[in-house]
Amino acid sequence: MSNEVIFWMLGVGLGIWYLSHQAGRLDRLHHRIDVTELALHGQLVRRGGIVAELAAVPGVDPALSVLWGQAAHEVLILQEVTQRSLVEDELTNVLLMTMDEVEEVNEIRTNEYASQLLDELAQVCDRIVLSHQFHTDAVRDCLEIREQYLVRIFRLAGHAPRPQTIEFDDQIPPALADSRIA
Amino acid sequence: MKIGIVCPYSWDIPGGVSAHVHDLAKALIDMGHQVSVLAPAEFDELLPEFVVSTGKPRAVKYNGSVARLSFGPIAARKVSRWIEDGEFDVLHVHEPLAPSLSVLACWAAKGPIVATWHSSMDKSRMMLTLAKLAQTAMEKVSARIAVSEAARSTLIKHVGGDAVVIPNGVDVSMFNNARPMFGWPGPNQSIVFLGRGDEPRKGLAVLVEAYPEIRRHLPNVRLLIAGPGEPADELKKLSPSDRASVTVLGMVAPEDKASVLASGTIYVAPNTGGESFGIVLLEAMAAGVPVVASDLDAFKRVLDFGRAGLTFENENSDDLAKVVCDLLANPGVREKLSAQGVIRAAEFDWAVVAQRIVNVYESVRVPGVKVEPDLTGQMIGRLGRGRITPEPRGEL
Fold first, then answer.
1. What pLDDT, on a 0 to 100 scale, did the predictor assign at position A90?
2. Measured between CA atoms, how close is A59 to chain B, in angstroms?
3. Sheet containing B291-294: which strands, arranged edge to edge?
């Protein structure tokens, strides 16, 4: 009889330990998602800022200026988080379109200030690719645990909203990277 | 940016990981960042000022070689105090699965954490066990870097997730103008080996086995062996006249490494496995010395698949002898390899590599968010605190 009691107590104890262990893991993963998401947003806003500045550089082709200015503006005034993918995609698109040939980029680079901004832009684009990957990794790790049977039954995730990857095209305009080396 | 870097291996003995951390820290400081490195070290007074020691490391067998690591409650306590005091923007741990400071640091911290994976391990079962044990620590890591494709595929296969590949860096300027040691290579040709002589996977045995054959073709060749560890056991297998042509230098200071490499007509890396990158190869190349290496994947990549150095079949001393004899007999090929090697090594200069690592830091960093102590992970540290009277904070 007493053996049986000890057996059950051990079992329940182990179960509680396991659940609290999983809850701890979830907590850490949610924290990681928060940090990586903030970092990604920071880099995206920086990209918008640099492109907006680039659009305002005196002497830049007015057509480019309008395209850049508009796309960057959309990023910078973003209110609805659900629209983020859309506006970032658009900005990436504009950059890919306007910086698809090295000669074109070198043309822009004749202006010293614009050239400096392009260097910064290349750095930021590189960081966005990294940030994006790290955020997606964190979300994937978290979802893997959240989908476990016991985790769902016991609602270990609490009220934390289900994490979502942020989908957008993070391609770096090839001419931008190449012209930097030249 | 304030950056905290954790090196799990002893600072006293130059090795791949600790050298990487040292050079990275210096490159970051040159770029204007504030850097603090935490590492096990026995001799406090010899440390550069950016290094904080956790005390004398212990020798443990790990991943096929003897590693000098630091662990246990005292180390854990020092780690968490270093994190508390450091107020870092980014915490960068190296080789997070080694049972040493890195995993302790992951345990004790939360916030933007970056981890670099150096080794590729063949022993998958050990990796699996380690990964499971360290899972809670690994899950806090926001960004993962692998120093090579081999290290990256080990990570994907055994731990899951992905990593960005950023190769090791070389301080090219230190090796570009290296002068050979006095009297070397001399009127005759010489072969240089650099690495632990008493560690099987460094492959000295393969070279020693090939050596008599090389001497049969080129009787005046000399062999220079440098690195910690006593190679006497291996050298016993040589005939007295062959043995007489071997010079054993023992451990060399980092600043002498360049001239040791430059003392060779060629440099031979007969490593049999467990290498994920091959930094010494790049250093020899930067010094303009042609390289002959075993055909490990990592080495083939560094040597640009034969364009910047030659390979022989791993663990095959006959093949090694043949490749070495051909190369020593052919100055034209040596000249071409030497020129290609210098160009190839420049692609791995620290200035280039460190900038890429900073991009990773920036991609996980959030202005205003610091690396903080994470109390939930500090069970070992708390046990340690109970037993040891705290020392004044200033001393750390």
1. 92
2. 31
3. B246-250, B222-226, B190-194, B266-269, B291-294, B310-312
Q: How confident is the model at residue A10 (pLDDT cuts 50, 70, 90)?
A: very high
Residues B332 and B370 reside in one and the same domain: no
Task: Please state the domain count of chain B.
Answer: 2
| Cβ pair B274, B63 in contact under 8 A | yes
- Same domain as B217, residue B144: no
Q: Tell whether the model's pLDDT for residue B313 goes beyond 80.
A: yes
Using an 8 Å CB-CB cutoff, list chain B residues near A24: 136, 376
- Same domain, yes or no: B165 and B199: no
Parallel, antiparallel, or unpaired: how do β-strands B58-62 and B65-69 relate? Answer: antiparallel
Give the structural domain span for A56: 2-181
pLDDT at residue number B227 = 85
| A36 min Cα distance to partner chain B (Å) | 5
Q: Among A46, A131, A132, A141, pick the best mutation site for testing chain B contact (most B Cβ within 10 A).
A: A131
Count CB pairs under 8 A between chains A and B: 67
CATH value at residue B146:
3.40.50.2000
| Nearest CA among A139, A125, A130, A127 for reference residue A34 | A139
pLDDT exceeds 60 at position B384: no
Rg (CA), chain A: 24
Q: pTM of whole model > 0.80?
A: no
Q: Are residues B45 and B130 in the same domain?
A: yes
pLDDT recorded at residue B385: 43
Q: What is the ipTM of this complex?
A: 0.81
DSSP string of B274-301?
--SS-HHHHHHHHTT--EEEE--HHHHH
> Which one of B364, B371, B375 would you mutate to disrupt binding with A, by most A Cβ within 10 Å of its Cβ?
B364
Q: Are residues B85 and B106 in the same domain?
A: yes
Nearest C-alpha of chain B: how many angstroms from A61? 30
Region B168-191: what's the mean pLDDT? 82
- The verdict on a CB contact (< 8 Å) between B139 and A133 is no
**Which residues are CB-neighbours of A76 under 8 A, at least 6 positions away?**
A45, A48, A49, A52
Kindly state whether B369 is in contact with chain A, defined as any CB-CB distance less than 8 angstroms: yes
Contact B363 A31 (CB under 8 A): no
Instruction: Give the integer Cα–Cα distance in Å for B112 and B88.
Output: 9
Q: Cβ of A42 under 8 Å from any chain B Cβ?
A: yes
Round to the nearest angstrom and report the end-to-end CA distance of chain A: 82
Per-residue pLDDT of B93-140, as tens digits, reads 998 887 788 888 888 888 899 999 887 665 556 666 766 777 777 888
Whether residue B99 is found in the same domain as residue B154: yes
pLDDT at A21: 83
Domain span including residue B310: 172-346
In angstroms, what separates the C-alpha of B53 from chain A's closest C-alpha? 28
Question: CB B360 to CB A40 under 8 A?
Answer: no
Q: Which of A25, A127, A135 to probe by mutation at the B interface, max B CB count within 10 Å? A: A127
Provide the domain count of chain A: 1
B265 and B359 assigned to the same domain: no
Q: What is the pLDDT of residues B199-251, one digit of tens each?
A: 788 888 888 888 888 888 888 888 899 888 777 778 888 888 888 888 888 88
